[in-house]
Amino acid sequence: MTDPTNTYKLLWIEQDTMIVKCMDDLAKGAIFRFSKVQLGEPIDDGTVPISFTTDLLDNPSDIDFKKSTTADEFDNYLGSLVTNIVMNALNMANEDAEYKMSAEGTSKNDENSVTDTK
């Protein structure tokens, strides 16, 4: 299976919908809309299920994604692609929150800091 990291271009994202252009050999420029993207409850093994619907908006290479030889591989690819995008967004949001907390903590510490002049 192709790793979707850096093999797509995120064209649009809002709430539970995103439009993605695939840039690798497997999809060759196809544009998909992923909607109703939702994370499920964590499973005992630490994984989190993700659900979504997919619409093919453009298929410039005229690939038959329903062929039995590529269908399973492509379904796995789409799942990995959506998971990759969601995880990157969550990581960025987490880093942003940590940065804001750090910046807030720094400013409070600076205001209340004591300097030893001995």
Short description:
This protein has 118 residues and is of the alpha+beta class.
Give the helix/strand layout:
Elements: E1 8-14, E2 17-22, E3 31-39, E4 50-58, H1 68-112
Antiparallel strand pairs: 1-2, 2-3, 3-4
Task: Describe the 3D structure.
- The structure is a single chain.
- The chain has 118 residues and is an alpha+beta fold.
- It has one domain (8-105).
- Helices cover 38% and strands 26% of the residues.
- The protein has one helix and four strands, in the order E-E-E-E-H.
- It has a four-stranded antiparallel sheet with strand order 1-2-3-4, covered by helices on one side.
- Strand 2 (17-22) and strand 3 (31-39) form a beta hairpin.
- The longest helix has 45 residues, at 68-112.
- It starts with 7 loop residues before the first strand and ends in a 6-residue tail after the last helix.
- 12% of the residues are buried.
